[in-house]
Design brief:
This protein is of the alpha+beta class. It has six helices and 15 strands. The longest helix is centred in the middle third of the chain and has 16 residues, at 142-157. The relative contact order is 0.16.
Length: 297
């Protein structure tokens, strides 16, 4: 008998919620982003399986992988016609140096002139209006097709400015979203939580409710940052920084006022191996958990 038959769980997002899988530490790891406007249908691998030139998409993904830049597609909610002039958005999510820049282009090859290494650096002034992404990559995962599209439609109908996005990672947490330029990712979202996150971002803050982490950090760094935020009640988007030099199961987190903490992490099993209802494969559900948050002198 399959896990689905035993539990009645029919989707990966429902399974994740039933297992109590933590959201912290599951954001996509991407100090830089390049998001390309591409109306119409997207395939499982949207950047190379859409009307966007697949060879150029593959080259951008190759360069992005080397530079720590995530390449994705975006479109406005609803079915939009293709136009000659197109838009892309380049973004850096580094704390204190986060920004979004609009890039107009006519042909995909124009984007090959961008210096992707610059997107993961700190070479431009910080500050940009929040840009909201909601994953609706239906061919990637059923949960994003059903839950992501429903959320995007609800937010659009309520007048919120947003973009539908290709895969944002972690479809088992659908609906998923990301706010740029900070790069905070969210899961198991609803319209009220999304609106609160956008309002906070416009004021230079972040909301911890259903936050998966900041994409500028690796997964342990994401967990450590959120753990310190919870411990001290800090919501300023750039008030907390995770030191890059730390490694292993420990991270050092500092506040801009000079305070520092060491966060110790440990792996945790969430349950026995089980079948993923959407992917059709067996998974061993595990997560990292916070063992201690210790203030440093």
């Amino acid at each position: 008998m399959t896990a689905q038959a035993e539990t009645g769980i029919s989707s990966c997002s429902a399974l994740s919620a039933a297992l109590g899988e933590p959201l912290a530490g599951t954001a996509p790891v991407a100090p830089g982003w390049l998001l390309i406007e591409q109306p119409g249908a997207w395939g499982h691998k949207a950047v190379t399986q859409s009307d966007f030139d697949p060879a150029i998409g593959a080259e951008l993904e190759r360069r992005g992988s080397a530079a720590g830049v995530r390449i994705g597609l975006i479109r406005r909610p609803g079915r939009n016609a293709h136009g000659a002039a197109r838009t892309a958005y380049a973004a850096s999510t580094r704390p204190g140096a986060s920004w979004v820049q609009r890039v107009d282009f006519t042909h995909g090859r124009d984007l090959l002139d961008l210096d992707l290494a610059d997107l993961s650096g700190a070479g431009r002034p910080a500050g940009s209006d929040p840009m909201l992404l909601v994953c609706t990559n239906a061919k990637r995962d059923t949960c994003c097709a059903v839950l992501g599209r429903a959320l995007a439609s609800e937010l659009d109908a309520a007048g919120l400015d947003l973009w539908e996005s290709s895969h944002l990672g972690g479809h088992r947490f659908a609906p998923t979203g990301v706010l740029l330029p900070t790069g905070y990712a969210y899961g198991r979202w609803d319209a009220a939580a999304a609106r609160a996150a956008v309002e906070a971002a416009a004021a230079g803050a972040m909301t911890a409710d259903r936050c998966r982490g900041r994409s500028a950090y690796d997964r342990p760094g994401q967990i450590a940052e959120l753990a310190v935020r919870e411990a001290i009640g800090e919501t300023g988007a750039d008030a907390i920084v995770v030191d890059d030099a730390a490694a292993g199961d420990r991270r050092v987190v500092r506040h801009l006022d000079g305070r520092r903490w060491e966060v110790t992490l440990a792996p945790m099993a969430l349950g026995p191996a089980t079948a993923d209802p959407c992917a059709g494969k067996t998974i061993e559900p595990r997560a990292l958990t916070v063992e201690a948050v210790t203030a440093l002198a």
